[in-house]
Design goal:
By secondary structure, the protein is an alpha/beta fold. Helices cover about 40% and strands about 10% of the residues. Helix 4 (about 100-105) crosses helix 5.
Length: about 220
C-alpha cells in the first residue's frame, strides 16, 4: 500500500473517477461511464433491505468527524414510523476552504443524484432535497440540468426504472454565512432550506435521512 500511494499520480481515483468529462451533465456519456449501474442493481436485484445490508458490508461511513456508519442511519430512518420520508443530500460544504462537495456536484452531478435515489429507495422516501450553498452557482446549474435529464430518462420521477416507486428531486440553495460552519448538518440544513439563514434548532426526527453529497456509488 505504501508503494501504491507513493506519489499523487499513483493515488486511485474513487470519488471523482468519472470527473473530467467535457460536459458533466451529458447523461448518455455518464451512463456509458457507469452512472446508475448501482441504482439498477438496487432496483432489480437487491430491494431496500438487501441494499442497506450491502451498504453495511461495504463499511461506508459518514464523511464528517464522527464517521458514523451510513447503513445505521438508513436503518434508523427506514424503521421510523412516518407517513412521509425525505432524503437530504447535504452539499453545503460548510468547512472553511472545503470544496469536496462542490467539486463533486460540479464535475459529476449524477453521482450525487444516483446515491440519493438509492437512499430514497432503501428508506422508503418519495422526496429528495439536494441542499447547495447559494453562491455555488456552477454546482446548482449542473445539478438542476442533471436532475431534469435523469427524470426524463426514468431514473427519477413518477416511476423509477419501472419499480413503481415515485421519487421527486429538488435542488435547494442555502444561505449560511458565519453560522454555516458552527451549526450541525441536520439542524442547519433543514432550517436553512426553508428560512433565509441557517441556525441552530432541535434535531429533527429520523424520518429524514441525511447523507453527504460526496457519497459515491458503484456496482
Amino acid at each position: 500500500m505504501t508503494e501504491l500511494l507513493a506519489t499523487p499520480s499513483a493515488w486511485p481515483r474513487i470519488l471523482l473517477d468519472r470527473a473530467g468529462a467535457a460536459d458533466p451533465t451529458d447523461l448518455d456519456a455518464a451512463v456509458e461511464a457507469g452512472a446508475f449501474e448501482g441504482l439498477r442493481r438496487a432496483v432489480r436485484d437487491l430491494g431496500p433491505t438487501a441494499t442497506i445490508a450491502t451498504l453495511a458490508a461495504s463499511g461506508l461511513r459518514g464523511r464528517g468527524g464522527a464517521g458514523f456508519p451510513t447503513a445505521e442511519k438508513w436503518r434508523a430512518c427506514a424503521s421510523q414510523p412516518s407517513d412521509r420520508r425525505f432524503v437530504v443530500a447535504n452539499g453545503y460544504a460548510a468547512d472553511p476552504a472545503s470544496r469536496t462537495d462542490v467539486t463533486l456536484m460540479e464535475r459529476d452531478p449524477y453521482a450525487v443524484i444516483e446515491g440519493a435515489i438509492i437512499a430514497a429507495l432503501a428508506v422508503g422516501a418519495d422526496d429528495i432535497v439536494i441542499a447547495v450553498r447559494a453562491d455555488a452557482t456552477a454546482a446548482v446549474q449542473a445539478l438542476e440540468t442533471a436532475v431534469a435529464a435523469a427524470t426524463e430518462a426514468g431514473f427519477a420521477g413518477p416511476d423509477v426504472l419501472g419499480s413503481g416507486r415515485p421519487i421527486e428531486i429538488a435542488v435547494r440553495t442555502v444561505r449560511g454565512g458565519a453560522t454555516g460552519c458552527s451549526c450541525p448538518a441536520r439542524s442547519r440544513g433543514t432550517t436553512g432550506m426553508y428560512r433565509p439563514t441557517s441556525r441552530w434548532r432541535c434535531r429533527p426526527g429520523t424520518s429524514t435521512c441525511w447523507l453527504p453529497a460526496s457519497t459515491r456509488w458503484g456496482s
